[in-house]
Specification:
Strand content: under 5%
Number of helices: 9
Helix content: over 70%
Order of helices and strands: HHHHHHHHH
Distance between the termini: 18 Å
Radius of gyration: 17 Å
CATH topology: Growth Hormone, Chain: A
Number of domains: 1
Structural class: mainly alpha
CATH architecture: Up-down Bundle
Shape: globular
CATH class: Mainly Alpha
Number of strands: 0
Amino acid sequence: MLEYFLIGGGFAFAAAIQPGPLQAFLLSSVAQRGWKRTLPAAFSPLLSDGPIALLVLLVLNRLPDAMGRILQAAGGILLLYLAWAGYRQWRQPPVADPEHTGPAPRTLLQAAGINLLNPNPYLGWSLVLGPAFLDAWHQGPANAAVLIIAFYATMVIMLAATILLFGTTSFLGPRGRHALILVSAITLAVLGMYRLTASLLQ
């Protein structure tokens, strides 16, 4: 059970820190509307990921075991690639917050819509969370529940923390956020090696 807690929480932590469409959307909202109005949007993955997860799990459940192991290995490779991309970004000098332009998002549903059109949840569920969920389910529904709860609890907490940090004191500053990118890259690398090794040993 601890294994799936670490997979879910670790992947969510890294995913929330890595720059992406949802993060840019949230930061744009903070810049234009303030952190208080943006904070509910931290819950947007809870709305958007349901259809994605259902679709992916229905497909994965029909695949033979050999294909499941291939997808698990592909998920490990994807995590290692994201770790490398994060490391390369960390090697760049820290920069000040970019200016955000464009219309301000107004509702939680808009943030969920952005995430629904974001390719990252589809990749994450197809190559990482989906195979891990099926593995956990076969060992017991409680393991699968721990994986999902750890992932989404960590994701919401990290997105909310990002909104608060950028919208209130911004005490992290460019250097602090720069350091978090390295932490994210290390987390992704550890998870990627674990998933890749587990697929090869099965």
